[in-house]
Amino acid sequence: MPSTTATVGSAVGLHARPATIIAEAAAEAGSPVTLALEGGDPVDAGSALMIMTLGAEKGTKVVVTADDQSTLDTIVKLVESDLDAE
C-alpha cells in the first residue's frame, strides 16, 4: 500500500472537527486507510475517535497509508489543510 508523510495543518490539530472530516473521507474510499505518528502504531482513518487518539497537534508529522494513490492524495490533502478555518 502506498504511504506518505503529511504535516497536520489544522490549528487545533486532529481533534473533533478535522478528525470527523478525515474519517468521513476515509470511509467513503471503501478501502483501508490508516494514520500513524512517525514510528507509532497505525489507526483506522475511518474512525474519528481513533484519529483523535493520535493526539496530533498542528505541525505533527503523520504517516498516511491507503490502498490506492487517489485515496492517499485525498487524505493527505485533508490532513494538511486547516479544516477548522472552513
UniProtKB/TrEMBL annotation:
Major subcellular site: cytoplasm
Record's keyword terms, sorted: Cytoplasm, Phosphotransferase system
Cellular location(s): Cytoplasm
Pfam families (alphabetical): PTS-HPr (PF00381)
Species: Gordonia bronchialis (strain ATCC 25592 / DSM 43247 / BCRC 13721 / JCM 3198 / KCTC 3076 / NBRC 16047 / NCTC 10667) (Rhodococcus bronchialis)
Lineage: Bacteria, Bacillati, Actinomycetota, Actinomycetes, Mycobacteriales
InterPro entries: HPr, HPr-like, HPr-like_sf, PTS_HPr_His_P_site
UniProt protein name: Phosphocarrier protein HPr
Gene Ontology cellular-component annotations: cytoplasm
